[in-house]
Task: inverse folding
């Protein structure tokens, strides 16, 4: 059988850190290697979790791997991040997290007290949301081959309704609602990684999103799609949605909440908070008629929640931003994450 190259190996003959950053190179791996190989309608939906139908029942299934460095950071650790991250992917599909599997790859030399601390953190995060860990696996690799610990968590959730929250639901005229301030996870990781001594107030926003999604679904508010703002941050998530739906989106800089401490750190480090990772912040894209109810619910969890933009008619998928000075420009997806190993 003839072997056909599906990837521009002449440009990238080996995997780089940027391939794991959630930017253009990650998308290239997905679009040019993974999707053609696995040929799955669920993968083509470009959602955070797969919508599966078993007889008349619907399930949501998600999986994620966590390689964050450092493994302990302000506001969380790799264990808490692994449980909340996977549960948040299920929540973005409108599903209540019910069961998880956990796979550990441990490096020889990892302190047992650190492993216990991480496992306890995972158990606490699971109890908080009522999800059960029902399967798992542990492997150990030689010293110097594993960077301490890597964790994979897969989850199954039950959606209360048969609605699917996928990009194809997005319509011209929809409003983009943001659930809180952006950039805290990325900056907290950067501060701990580089020992920069930022103010202790900069902590990761690592937390469960299901409680606010649950209230959204219980309300009469119509929601078209939800997306948590992890690798690549707010800008990357919206660019992906705009490109998937081939519609133009426009957000207003003055409506996006960035804590002053995060803003100052980004300015000092030359980072753009729009592209900084979050682990407890989401956007909901809703019809104009649902904005008031959506904001009423989200503000109960974070008063800084706001409507930050709209979906415009357009023949190309792109994200525009209106600056505080009134100028407008297009945001482009970055090649990789501003900070590698962020989740």
Result:
């Amino acid at each position: 059988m003839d072997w056909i190259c599906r990837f521009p190996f002449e440009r990238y003959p080996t995997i780089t850190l940027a391939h794991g950053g959630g930017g253009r190179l990650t998308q290239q791996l997905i679009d040019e290697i993974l999707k053609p190989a696995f040929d799955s309608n669920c993968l083509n939906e470009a959602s955070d979790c797969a919508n599966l139908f078993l007889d008349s029942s619907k399930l949501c299934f998600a999986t994620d791997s966590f390689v964050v460095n450092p493994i302990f950071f302000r506001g969380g650790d790799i264990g808490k991040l692994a449980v909340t991250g996977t549960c948040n992917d299920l929540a973005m599909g409108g599903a209540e997290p019910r069961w998880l599997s956990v796979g550990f790859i441990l490096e020889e030399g990892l302190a047992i007290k650190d492993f216990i601390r991480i496992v306890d953190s995972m158990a606490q995060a699971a109890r908080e949301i009522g999800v059960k860990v029902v399967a798992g696996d542990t492997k150990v690799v030689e010293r110097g081959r594993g960077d301490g610990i890597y964790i994979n968590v897969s989850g199954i959730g039950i959606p209360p309704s048969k609605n699917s929250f996928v990009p194809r639901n997005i319509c011209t005229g929809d409003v983009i609602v943001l659930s809180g301030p952006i950039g805290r996870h990325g900056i907290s990781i950067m501060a701990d990684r580089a020992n920069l001594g930022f103010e202790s107030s900069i902590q990761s926003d690592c937390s469960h999103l299901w409680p606010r999604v649950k209230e959204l679904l219980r309300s009469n508010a119509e929601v078209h799609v939800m997306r948590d703002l992890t690798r690549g941050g707010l800008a990357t998530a919206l660019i992906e949605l705009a490109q998937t739906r081939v519609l133009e989106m426009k957000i207003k800089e003055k409506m996006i909440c960035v804590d002053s401490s995060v803003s100052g750190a980004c300015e000092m480090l030359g980072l753009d908070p729009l592209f900084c990772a979050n682990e407890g912040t989401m956007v909901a894209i809703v019809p104009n008629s649902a904005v008031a109810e959506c904001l009423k619910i989200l503000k109960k969890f974070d008063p800084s929640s706001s409507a930050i933009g709209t979906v415009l008619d357009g023949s190309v998928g792109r994200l525009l931003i209106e600056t505080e000075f009134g100028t407008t420009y297009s945001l482009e997806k970055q090649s990789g994450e501003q900070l590698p190993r962020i989740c």
Q: What stands out?
A: The chain has a mean pLDDT of 91. Residues 112-129 form the longest helix (18 residues). DSSP finds nine helices and 14 strands in the chain.
